[in-house]
């Protein structure tokens, strides 16, 4: 059984904060900023630990390869996992891996300098995928698909060479939601990014420890920790990508509809196959009356009722909504993965 990651980190009494905080305009402002920073760090540690525990992402003796791109998400993932490793009830290794794709102007010294200064084991893989992508993809066309395939194959090989048992990616909750809607709108299928999955070559286990984390928290954390962010010039300028369009849609919903994106995210872990239409998931052809009442049976003539979710972003672990002066570090976000009922 995989030990729980959640208990050892709640509450976090010793969050890791930068050694230098920005100058405050006064004692009260400094105190408010410190409280806010502590809440942010505790929330990130708690949510990442909870996701790891819910999906059994990391086990005793694992060697976790953290894919570090130089963006806020992968920096945040590495930093949070390093902290959790210090507190975890199990032992596991972490090695950071960066794929230098030889983009023009890429500051190749930044990541080695950062990782060396922090004493983090790392490997830099040098492969000129930039030239390959630019040669094969016409100007103005989306480069993501080819770039992703090339990068994936290289990282799988590196993981094998390093003896990594898990490959950790920095995808967060917003990425998962965006992927869901891309598949829904353009692929005609209900599919997202799972928190844990076997790689397409069948050799590796891919994990996404930030699955419960909101992007805005990672943005704030990157500023707090002053990560040396490296922009991606290969694809970052492609503003018309469908993913960016979906992301803008989700941002708009967050501004105007409280809890809408939260409810959608929660739904990804509360699937009712009998009320969908996929015969691969439900044997519709073989359905017969059982003679037993079933609360999940069809109620075609009942009016639909959409209650608030059992656990929302504005509630604490006990289901209470803290007041403005309450312990705001208790405000967490998680879908509470469904457990199989005891017989």
TrEMBL record:
Superkingdom of origin:
Bacteria
Where, per UniProt, does this protein localize?
A: Cytoplasm
Query: What's its catalytic activity?
Result: cytidine(32) in tRNA + S-sulfanyl-L-cysteinyl-[cysteine desulfurase] + AH2 + ATP = 2-thiocytidine(32) in tRNA + L-cysteinyl-[cysteine desulfurase] + A + AMP + diphosphate + H(+)
The GO terms describing molecular function are: 4 iron, 4 sulfur cluster binding; ATP binding; magnesium ion binding; sulfurtransferase activity; tRNA binding
Binding annotation for [4Fe-4S] cluster: 144, 147, 235
Query: What ranges does the record list as Acidic residues composition bias?
Result: 301-318
Q: In which pathway does it act?
A: tRNA modification
Provide the assembly information: Homodimer.
Miscellaneous information on this protein:
The thiolation reaction likely consists of two steps: a first activation step by ATP to form an adenylated intermediate of the target base of tRNA, and a second nucleophilic substitution step of the sulfur (S) atom supplied by the hydrosulfide attached to the Fe-S cluster.
Name of the protein in its database record: tRNA-cytidine(32) 2-sulfurtransferase
Q: Which organism is it from?
A: Castellaniella ginsengisoli
